[in-house]
Amino acid sequence: MYNTKSRIITITLIVLSVLSILTYFLLPEVKRRLEIKKTEEIISEMTIEQKVGQLFIMGFWGTEPDYYITKMITERNIGGVILLGYNIKDTQQVNKLTTDLQALSAVTPLFISIDQEGGEVSRLGTDIVSEITAQKDITNEKDAYKIARNRGTQLRELGINMNFSPVLDNITDETSFMYERVFRNDISSLGANMIEGYMDAKIISVPKHFPGHSNDSTDSHNSLPVVNIVMDELDNYISQFKYVIEEEKPKAIMVGHIQFPNISEAIPSSLSSIFIQDILRDRLGFEGIVITDDMQMKSVSNTYSIQDSAIMAIQAGCDILIYTGEPEQQAEAYNSILGAVKDGIISEERIDESLGRILGIKKTLFNF
Hints:
There is one protein chain. The protein is α/β, with parallel strands linked by helices. The protein folds into two domains: 1-45; 48-366, Glycoside hydrolase, family 3, N-terminal domain (TIM Barrel, Alpha-Beta Barrel). The protein is built from 14 helices and ten strands. It has helices at residues 2-45, 48-53, 67-76, 91-104, 141-157, 187-200, 231-237, 239-248, 261-264, 273-283, 298-301, 306-316, 327-342, 348-366, and strands spanning 56-58, 80-83, 111-114, 116-118, 121-122, 162-163, 204-205, 252-255, 289-294, 320-323. Strands 7-6-3-2-1-10-9-8 form an eight-stranded parallel sheet. Helix 3 links the parallel strand 1 and strand 2. The chain is globular and about 50 Å long.
């Protein structure tokens, strides 16, 4: 009788141990599958108009939501907004602005983004935040993390959840238009630590401008920069991006408008499937959101129409397109993608692919 009970207890303990082990290893996968299902359910309930809207981050003029950005959010369901200097007055105003913008978005919360690099590119001044250290003045990993963590915390308190930082372009020439915005050395490690700091502050860090400007790049706001490296030189050229992707797995990366004629012919990197799909995703293994630099920069608009560049960017593999300028052109870009889907030029499956990445990150950020 005792032996029988002992065997039953032993078997029970073994079964419970096995179940505990299986639960330990399988629960994360089960949870992941449930999260995927929830994201898929959200996507299945969205109209094509709402889906397309999520692929855009738009700018606007003024210190409160105007007619155009209100329409973009309420009628076109855009995925986010970007705050620039003319949107910012003081702490109270920024808090109210971000609150009012989020209140307009009924389908999903907004990415509220900003260029707060520190130094000369600081949309928020010291009257609103205390942390505006320039990247050029960051010299060690501890400071890189601490500065990004503190900056991210201050952004989060203002209702901002995405920062287009750090800058990972490798610039050593003092005459470069980028020189004052970059690390002086140790780009990979300092960049990785800043990304970690932002992430710990619950800010989506968006390192930029993949694949990177060169020392003699022209300013992409005014013209299309040209980098004449060949494919054999590319691994070294983009090594800092490879490093941060492997070490920190950033949720998003900004791709710049840069021409590499020996690699993708005349097509800018932001419109090139070679750079976005073949190199960034397949070679470097990046799984997050690919965001373009401002699509209304002259580096793109001098050559391509609003319609053509928007369609090319989505076809190349970009997930989110940024437009900061004229609202009529913003509407044109949205309508061009919507029309391309309805006409079969871009498949709805391609839109859903980007939407899955966008909503996956939003669900993590906002717990909705």
